[in-house]
Structures are given as structure tokens and as C-alpha cells.
Amino acid sequence: MGRWLASAALWLVWGSFTFADKKSFSFRDRNCGTAPRGNVISESRIVGGHESQIGAWPWIVSLQFIKVVNKSVHLCGGSIIKETWILTAAHCFKLSREPQFWIAVIGINNILKPHLKRKEIKIDTIIIHPEFKHITFENDVALVHLKRPVTYNNLVQPICLPVLYGIPKITETTRCFISGWGKRTEGGTLTPSLQEAEVNFISRRTCNAVGSYAGRVPNTSFCAGDNFGNVDSCTGDSGGPLMCYFAEHDKFFLTGITSAGVGCGRAFFPGIYTDVQLYEPWIKKQWYLEDLRGKNEISIVRGKIIIIMAFIVLFVPI
Asked: With the C-alpha atoms ordered 31, 33, 36, 42, is the resulting torsion angle positive or negative?
């Protein structure tokens, strides 16, 4: 009887792992791009911006560098795109690409004040786009894989990726917003409270004209803000989202990543943003590879357990 029970346990272990392997992996989150606590689209909302409502942008993340034990500082923003994934800018990791020196802080509006839903999550992997060029900011995109999944609530939600929903390219009439804890003026200090501003899409042709960036905006990026410098992202906003609202879906989509610019709020030098749509195939590939790596680790554990159980069934007197 004892040996029969051990054999049954062995088959139960095998079956449970096999079932786990067959769990479907989805690239699309039907609840993405919604802000349960905010009604931001009804108002015009970081240079030229103002403080955002609590929960207005529940996907935004503060990526903080650990200077000493239990002491970290905000360096960049990021966006939650899946339970264990954050999309940000590659240049954010100039100080270090080692994940143990970084944490992701979620569920906050003020980076200095404690909050019940504030969570600090350790980082498992930092994946820099292999063709990132720091001098020109081409391919300025990176993925951060968290050590544990975030728990969605009113202050923590993912943002949608545009290609997965068939979203067209943004135009001058698309309503788009930026948000972050960056400086409000060039040469100023970081703002502890999350700021936001509405920005206009500016074509690469206009942005690359003589008198503006004169051809320096790469084909992997676009500009947004205004040509008079009234609204702009600034130091500390890097990696954060440029998010656009599409009424037909009633959702926000991550269309840009705050990347570069000349100064802050300078006329004819609007902010430069990485075009997210160009990188969705790369993003999905990284998701798939990480999912495969996780399954391989499960398979290794399963193999060890099965060997132990088989040894017990075959050789241990019961």
C-alpha cells in the first residue's frame, strides 16, 4: 500500500508540472491602458506641466539606483507592460547594467513619501537593445525583468502596446501625454511629486530641420512637445512614457519612451522619444525567451523531484 501511494505521488508530481508547462502565454493584456483612479483625458495636463492626480498613470515606475544599503535615488522612469516587465530607455543604465544595483518602485505619486501601496521590487535582468548607440541615441530602449510579478490594483496597472491592438501611427491630432519626476526647469532639481503635461506630435521632418536638430533625430525616434519650448520632458524623465489616448479603444497606449533632447524647454528643440512600435517584435522575442528560460528551470526542478521520488519508490523500503 505504501509503495502504491508513493507511485501515485510520483505520477501526481509529473502531471502537475506537465499541466504547468501547457499554461498559455499571452502577449496582450485586455485590462491594459486604463486608470481606475484617474480621469485625465477630460483635462489638459516636466517643464510646462503640473502635478498629476494620484493613480492617473498607474503604469509609471521609478527606477532607482542603490547608492548604499537601504538608500536609493530616482534616476529614470519606466512603464509596466506586463506583470514582470518594465519598458524604459537604454541610456538609463549608463551608471551600471548590473540588476543588483537597481530597484523598481511602483504604486507611488510622490517618490519621497511612504504609501501603503508603494512597493519596491528587485530586478532580475536588464536587457539593453543590442544595437543601442549612446552617442546618437539610436535604439534607445531596454527591458527590465522583475524578480517577482507586480500585483495590479488601482495604483498599479500595465499600459498597452500599440501594435498588439493595430493602433496606427500617431499624428498631430492625437492626444498624447508625458509624465515623470524630472526637473521642471533646466538646471533645476528633481520634483518629488509626479508631473504630467499634454504634448503634440512633431514630425521628424520638422524636428530635423535646420534651426532645430538639423538631422540629428534618428529614424528610430520622433519628437513631441511644442516648437516654442512651453512643454518638454527634462532630466529625470528619461525612460518614462509618452502615452497616447485612442477613443475607439478607450485606452492609453505606450507610443514613445523619453529619450533625449537639447536642454529642457528650449524653443525649436522639443523632446526626442523612442518609437515603441518599431520595437514590439524585439520586445515579444525577449518575453518569449524569458518564458522559455523559466520553463527550462521548472523542467530541471521537475527532473530532480522525479529522480528523488523514483529512488524512494524503487529502493526505499516502505
From this structure: negative
pTM of the model: 0.83
Task: Establish if 201 belongs to a structural domain.
Answer: yes
| Interval 4-32: pLDDT, tens | 545 554 444 445 444 444 444 456 677 89
Q: What is the pLDDT of residues 156-208, one digit of tens each?
A: 999 999 987 788 888 888 999 999 998 777 777 788 999 999 999 998 889 99
Instruction: Give dist(CA 64, CA 73) in Å, integer.
Output: 5
Distances (CA, A) of 12 to 17, 18, 98, 184: 9, 10, 39, 59
Cα-based angle 92, 84, 271 (whole degrees, multiple of 5): 30
Between CA 53 and CA 40 the distance in angstroms is: 8
Closest listed residue to residue 35, CA positions, set 217, 158, 117, 198: 158
Q: CB neighbours of 182 closer than 8 A, spacing ≥ 6?
A: 46, 77, 190, 191, 195, 233, 234, 235, 236, 237, 238, 240
Total structural domains in the chain? 1
Residue 223 · residue 206 · CB < 8 Å: yes
User: Which is nearest to 275 in space by CA: 141, 173, 113?
Assistant: 141
Distance CA 178, CA 180 (A): 7
Task: Look at residue 167 and tell me if it is in a domain.
Answer: yes
- Active-site annotation, residues: 91, 140, 238
Residue 97 sits in a domain of what CATH number? 2.40.10.120
Domain with 49 in it? 40-281
